[in-house]
Structures are given as structure tokens and as C-alpha cells.
Write a structure and sequence with these properties.
The chain is an all-alpha fold. The chain contains 30 helices and no strands. 70% of the residues lie in helices and 0% in strands.
Length: 720
């Protein structure tokens, strides 16, 4: 009977190589369903093979799980077969993970770890222990148990250290850093994890590092997330440059591999001709050897493998090997995200740091079944996690598009991107739950940018109500306060003056308490925004000197820590206006000229108009009629350009929809639908990607009404 099994295994391999997965599975199931009994070991291997095919090529997770559970029962009666038992545990854990059954997953992993602890402690056993600890850490993360996750990862790190495997040590070190970034309850712990990652990475042989592309991307991205979290954009830039260079080199290599493979296929086809002349055959054979050698050298330059039994448990198992950025060796073979998602993240980091490039490839969503009209409850359960990853990346790109378009007064384009975000959220409210506050924030940003200050304040306050992040709430209150300051500035009727007084009190109620507790809020971005809003409050109270001190401190933060030229330009403008109010005309002129130069460089029309307005007032005060007229003429030209863009925005069908004082309405799904969508909580995995939060105003009636883009080029930060 073993010969029959060998034959059916071979036939299954033949069908799989031809892409006929259904036929391959039928060949293997013939062994399991046979009336003639096979040896238990044959049935176990066959069921493992079926499970692997199902997990790799289909969404039939439950069928795979059934085969694995049967294999586990058969293995209980066999005292040996350590490798098969470990493979069964590993695959079964993945199945439980995919169906959202976390308690059974943890139970099976505890059994697996008991098995490894009782076996001889050789390298293979340690590697399997690393595998199980990694999966266990992932399960704890889904439950929000960060400390237990870190403990499991530390156990894996110890195993990797015991077998002197620096690649594997680096895998666990970066994973621990990832969890600390997600939890973020102690910045010192984050710093220790970063130091550990740096130390382990340096311990890897330089030639070996080039083969660990997955670890390179993972480590560099986590470093970037940390730098962006603390708004250290200057030190984040070189990490982005490293990733950009590595991505381009890998894309070039993969393109060369594809070209060489195509040429080799054509050459092999030519060599198969029986009538090929011997001289030509000899020349082609020589070329064939060279192509094969070049292909091997390219493929060996990366940490990859070809055919392992179990698929990756990080994200989507159905990835061609060329689409993987492998993090760890067999038997782990894991990836954090598919290569296309990692490359999308690299593009996103470039966008955040002010160098726009790249587009989000929505075909990745189409492959997951996300087409027009599809909602989250319509998705295959095993696709929810990866759908969440790609949807969150898409929202990140759209958010940055809104920010970039508003910065350059592209109001209609910003509307379109914001409406897309809104529509995606309505269709996938559970997966994109973390984006609700962000969308409200951006609605406020849009409303303020087009001069609808009351509506802007409403959306900022709503955004603060939705989020649980103290830093985000502080940002929302600061922005809302500035919007309230602006409400009475554009008009001067007595009724509006009454409204303005009320709005002023609203602003004080928002910014006062938050500013008092600013020392308890982490982040230089938050500190800069609070200084700005409080500086505006002091200006309204005619306390110009103290306002200047607060705003100067905010400018110092923006210049030294944030590297945001737009924010620097806007701080300079308001400080120039303050210098003018204090009759320091010499300093005012120098400051305002610097501000205008930066605003022109950044194509920031509102800030240009604002700076020109203050400069015109300065020249008027100095009696410099020539410069006054020249500045005012240029200001009117820019204002006409801005007003035309505003008119286009007001006439758009999306304008009222976005500014209206109405919260987003989401369809309430049936409770079972929600449970199905939320069963795999890793769909909201804490990528910890910074997001766009910024404000700008088009109408510089008075400097105190100018709401700066507090973080225009590198928008804010919230956990996802």
C-alpha cells in the first residue's frame, strides 16, 4: 500500500505543478477515504499535505482544520514523529488563528511548547520552540495582552540566542519593539528595545545582512514609526532613504530575475527541438549554463526558500515566494506583511516626509474580493486580516492626499479624497473603526480651510469625543479653540460680535484645561499646537509679550524637532505680526520676509497672503508707499487665485456633505455579522503609522484669525 500512496503523492505533485489544485486534493483524499487501511504515518503525512494545499491556494480553512485535527488525534498514539507533531501543531494553530478561535489556538500552542520542552534541546527543537513562541505572541496581541506577548517573544529570543542564530534574534528583537510601539506605556522600554535591535543588527555579518531583506524593512520601518511618533522627522529621513534605496534595488533584482527566467524558458524550448544543429545547440547550451548560474546567484542573495510544508502565518499565506519579505528561517518562514504592502508603507513614509511619490495599488484589494458594493461582512473570514491591512494603507494614502491638497489649496481634490475615505469607512466600519476620529478631524480641517469655522469647530469636538487618545483629544481641542477664535473675525456686525464673544469663551473652555495639563501629554507635535493655540488666546487678551514667548517656544520646537518648513513659515508670520504690534519694525520685516520666502517655496497660498497682509501693514506704518503698493498688488493677485479655488469648492456637490454638522452614519450590522467581522482582531493591527492632522485658513483678515497648518507636511500621529 505504501507504493500506492507514493504514486498518489506523485500524481498530486504533478497536478499542483500544473495549477490543478482540485485534482491534487482529490488524489490525496483518495488515500484518506480508502476502504483499505494505510499506515497511520501515511495518513498523517497525506492530511498534512492536503491542509497545506488548502491553506496555500484556497479559503477552505475549516476543511484544512478538520484534516489537521484528525492528524493530531492519530499522532497521539505515536510516541515518536517529533517533526510531524510540530508541523501539525503549527498548521493547526494557523487555522485557529484564521477563523478567529484564539483560545483553542493558545491551547494548541501550549501543548506544542510542552512537546519542545520535553525533547532533546538541539537546534531543530529550538527552532520549533521559536515558531510556537512567535505564534503565541501573535495570539496574545489579538487579545490585547501586550505583556504576555512580550514574554513569549522574549522566550523566543532566548532560544535564538542559545543556538547562536543572530537572524532569529533580530526577528524577536524587532517583534518586541513592535509590541512596545503598539502599547506605548513606557518610552524607556521603547528606547531599550530600539537599542537592542541596533545591537543585534550590528552583530550580523555585513554580507549576511544583505540577504535579510525582510528584517531590514521591518527594522527600518519600526524605527521610522518611533521617530514619527515623537515627531523626530529629521532622524526619520535617513531611515526612509535606506528603505527607498533597498526597495529600488530589490525591484531591479526581481525584474532581472523575471527577464532571465523568460529568456531561459525560451532557450529551453529551443533546445527541445530535435532538428537543432549541433553548433547552435552547443552555443545555446553554453548560454543556458550562464543564465542558470546568474539566476542562482540572484536567488541565493536573499533569505528565501522554495517549498516548505507550512505557509507563512504572518498575514496572507497565499503569496508567491517572490512576493514575500521573509523574516525568519524554516520552520517559521514568516513575513510581517506582503511585499506589496511593505512597499506601499515605504511610499507612505516618503509622502509623510514631504517627498510625494508612488500610488496605492488598489488591485491588492480586488484580489481579496473587495469590489464595488462589497461590505466587510461579505468578506471571506480568512481575508479579513489582510483586507484590513490594505484598507488601512489606502486610508493612509487618502488622508495624506487630503493633507497635501489642502496645503496647496486644492480644495476640490481634497473633497474627492475625503469623500472616498468616508465611503470606505461606511462600507467597512469595523475594520476601519480607528479611522472614524481621523475622518472627523479631516472634515474639520477642510471646513476651516474654506472658512467655515463654526462647522470646523463642531467636527473637531466630535473627533475628540470619538477617540480615547489623550494626545489626539488635546490636538482636537487646540484646533477647535483656534476655529472658535476665527468665527467673529470675518464679519463685524453687532450680532456677529456677540457670537464672537461666545466663541471666545468656548475657545477658553477648550484650550485652558488642556494647556494646564500639557506636561502630561507626550509628543512635540502636540506641544507645538498647544503653544500656538494658547499664544492666540494671549494675543486676544492683549498680552503680546507673553504670547510672543509662547509662540517663540513653539517655533523652536517646530524648527529643531519637527523639520516642518510650512509650520516654521506660519510661526514666523504670526511672530512677525506680534513684533509689529510691539512696534519692533526691524525684526518684524526680517521675520516676515523669511516667512514669505518659505511660503513661496512650499506653494502655500494662504500663508503667502497672510505674510503679505502683515508686510503691507508694516510698510504702511513705516510710510513706505512703494513697497506697500507692491505687496498689496501681489496680495490681491494671490487672494483672487484663492477665491477662485474657494468658489469651485463651494459649488461642488460634496461641499455641504462634508461641512454639515452631522456625524458619520454607519449601517448597524446584525450582531452576528459584527462578531464575524471582529473575530480576527488583528485586522486592526497597530501599524502605528502617523496620520495627517493639519489646518490652514484661506482668509487672513487678521493674524489672530489665521489658523496655521500645525503639521501640514508631516501630519499627526494616532495608533491604528
Amino acid at each position: 500500500m505504501e507504493a500506492v500512496a507514493e504514486g498518489l503523492w506523485g500524481l498530486a505533485d504533478y497536478h499542483e505543478n500544473k495549477g490543478e489544485i482540485g485534482k491534487a486534493v482529490k488524489c490525496l483524499e483518495a488515500i484518506c477515504q480508502s476502504h483499505v487501511s494505510f499506515l497511520p504515518i501515511v495518513e498523517i503525512k497525506t492530511r498534512l499535505r492536503i491542509s497545506t494545499l488548502l491553506l496555500k491556494h484556497t479559503h477552505n480553512v475549516n476543511h484544512a482544520k478538520s484534516h489537521l485535527e484528525r492528524s493530531q488525534l492519530l499522532l497521539k498514539a505515536i510516541p515518536s514523529c517529533f517533526e510531524l507533531k510540530c508541523r501539525t501543531f503549527s498548521l493547526l494553530s494557523q487555522c485557529y488563528h484564521l477563523v478567529g478561535a484564539i483560545p483553542p489556538q493558545k491551547l494548541i500552542l501550549y501543548k506544542a511548547l510542552d512537546l519542545t520542552s520535553s525533547a532533546s534541546q538541539d537546534v531543530a527543537v529550538k527552532l520549533w520552540s521559536c515558531n510556537f513562541n512567535s505564534q503565541l505572541a501573535n495570539a496574545f496581541i489579538i487579545e490585547g495582552d501586550y505583556q504576555s506577548s512580550i514574554s513569549a517573544l522574549q522566550s523566543g529570543y532566548v532560544c535564538a540566542t542559545e543556538i547562536s542564530y543572530p537572524d532569529l534574534q533580530m526577528f524577536f528583537a524587532t517583534a518586541i519593539l513592535h509590541v512596545h510601539l503598539m502599547q506605548w506605556d513606557d518610552e524607556n522600554s521603547v528606547l531599550r528595545s530600539i537599542s537592542q535591535c541596533d545591537r543585534v543588527w550590528e552583530s550580523i555579518d555585513p554580507n549576511r545582512r544583505g540577504q535579510c531583506l525582510g528584517l531590514l524593512f521591518y527594522n527600518e520601518l519600526l524605527h521610522i514609526f518611533y521617530r514619527l511618533r515623537i515627531c523626530d522627522y529629521k532622524n526619520a529621513a535617513h531611515h526612509v532613504d535606506n528603505l527607498d534605496a533597498a526597495m529600488k534595488a530589490d525591484m531591479q533584482k526581481m525584474q532581472e530575475i523575471q527577464q532571465l527566467s523568460s529568456e531561459l524558458d525560451a532557450l529551453n524550448q529551443s533546445l527541445s527541438r530535435p532538428d537543432l544543429p549541433s553548433r547552435e545547440r552547443s552555443a545555446l547550451a553554453g548560454r543556458q549554463i550562464k543564465l542558470q548560474q546568474r539566476l542562482r546567484s540572484l536567488e541565493d542573495s536573499s533569505l528565501t526558500g522554495k517549498e516548505f510544508l507550512e505557509p507563512s502565518y504572518f498575514g496572507n499565506a497565499r503569496q508567491a515566494w517572490g512576493d514575500k519579505l521573509v523574516l525568519a528561517p524554516s520552520p517559521m518562514d514568516g513575513e510581517w506583511l506582503p511585499k506589496s504592502a511593505v512597499y506601499a508603507l515605504v511610499d507612505l513614509m516618503v509622502v509623510i516626509l514631504g517627498r510625494p511619490k508612488g500610488l496605492f495599488k488598489e488591485y491588492a484589494l480586488l484580489k481579496l474580493g473587495i469590489t464595488d458594493g462589497v461590505r466587510e461582512v461579505d468578506l471571506q473570514h480568512s481575508a479579513i486580516w489582510m483586507a484590513g491591512v490594505y484598507l488601512m494603507l489606502l486610508m493612509q494614502f487618502l488622508e495624506n492626499k487630503v493633507a497635501v491638497e489642502l496645503t496647496r489649496s486644492g480644495f476640490v481634490e481634497a473633497q474627492e479624497a475625503l469623500v472616498q475615505m468616508k465611503n470606505w469607512f461606511i462600507r467597512f466600519p469595523t475594520i476601519l473603526q480607528a479611522c472614524e476620529s481621523m475622518i472627523e478631524m479631516l472634515r474639520g480641517q477642510y471646513a476651516h480651510s474654506v472658512g467655515c469655522y463654526s462647522e470646523a469647530a463642531f467636527h473637531y469636538v466630535e473627533a475628540a469625543k470619538i477617540t480615547e487618545s489623550k494626545s489626539m483629544q488635546a490636538m482636537c481641542h487646540a484646533y477647535a479653540a483656534v476655529s472658535y477664535f476665527c468665527i467673529g473675525d470675518a464679519e463685524s456686525s453687532s450680532q456677529v460680535q456677540i457670537s464672537s464673544a461666545y466663541s471666545f469663551m468656548q475657545a477658553i473652555d477648550l484650550i485652558g484645561p488642556v494647556y494646564q495639563m500639557k506636561d502630561t501629554i507626550n509628543g512635540v507635535r502636540e506641544e507645538a499646537s498647544l503653544h500656538f493655540a494658547y499664544g492666540l488666546l494671549l494675543m486676544r487678551q492683549q498680552d503680546f509679550q507673553e504670547a510672543r514667548n509662547r509662540l517663540a517656544k513653539g517655533l523652536q520646537i517646530a524648527h529643531n524637532h519637527m523639520g516642518n518648513l510650512q509650520l516654521v513659515s506660519q510661526y514666523l508670520t504670526i511672530l512677525g505680526n506680534l513684533a509689529l504690534a510691539l512696534h519692533d519694525t526691524v525684526q518684524a520685516r526680517e521675520i516676515l520676509r523669511s516667512s514669505l520666502t518659505l511660503a513661496k517655496k512650499l506653494y502655500d497660498i494662504p500663508t503667502q497672503i497672510w505674510a503679505l497682509s502683515v508686510l503691507t501693514a508694516l510698510y504702511q506704518q513705516l510710510g513706505d508707499r512703494g513697497n506697500e503698493m507692491e505687496n498689496d498688488e501681489y496680495r490681491r493677485k494671490k487672494l483672487d487665485e484663492l477665491q477662485k479655488r474657494l468658489a469651485d469648492a463651494y459649488s461642488s456637490i460634496h461641499h455641504i456633505e462634508l461641512i454639515s454638522k452631522v456625524k458619520l452614519e454607519v449601517q448597524q450590522f446584525h450582531e452576528l455579522d459584527i462578531k464575524r467581522a471582529m473575530a480576527n482582531q488583528s485586522m486592526s493591527v497597530n501599524l502605528d503609522i502617523p496620520e495627517s492632522i493639519g489646518l490652514s485658513t484661506p482668509l487672513p483678515v487678521q493674524s489672530s484669525s489665521r489658523l496655521v497648518d500645525l503639521d501640514g507636511g508631516r501630519r499627526g500621529k494616532r495608533k491604528i
